[in-house]
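Section 3.1: Structural characterization of target chains.
Under the original work plan, the team committed to producing a structural model for every single-chain target entering the pipeline before any wet-lab resources were allocated. The record below documents one such target. The sequence was received from the expression subgroup and is listed exactly as submitted; it comprises 198 residues.
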Amino acid sequence: MKLHFGGMVLALLLALALSGCGSMLAQNPRGKLKPVNAVAEGADGSVMLKGADVVAYFQQGKYVQGNPRLTSTYEEVTFRFASPEHKAMFDRDPTRYLPQYGGYCANGIAYGIPWGGDADTWKIIGGRLFIFGGQASKDAFGLDEKRNLELADKYWKDEVAGSNSFLRRIWRLVVKVPHYQTGEELARAVADSRARAQ
């Protein structure tokens, strides 16, 4: 039995959707905080940043992995903490400690793409926590931090917040923003900037 091209594409998309079902649910919880850079782990359906302690960035100035026995749930998302004190601080004022853009890579959100975000690559800017998809993304974002913050805030507010992460990601990987640059182009721009600074 032969499948025509459209049928093959549909079958492939269905297979991808079903294979990523756990991830899709973890990143798109029922609460208002979505999409989020989260994973399903055990009974916790959406663990933010694979369990990184979001309070530690502010209080200790570093990435610290949280303890699965010290958790709080905010808007259907589970947060883990390294100490009871950090948990108490979060519980008093959760929005103060939330990573921007659902914990996705801030550089990706500047392109309207909710993707990536490594808990150990981060920066606090103006009292807000930003996560990046590695040092290269952080360096690229820093080339024009003010403009990139404006772009990321705009795309998060206008397109990404409240949407389905997978659908939004596919859309913006196909329909690119006007200022889109590839990873190679961004790496060259970072290298050029460093060369000029020397």
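The chain has ten helices and six strands.
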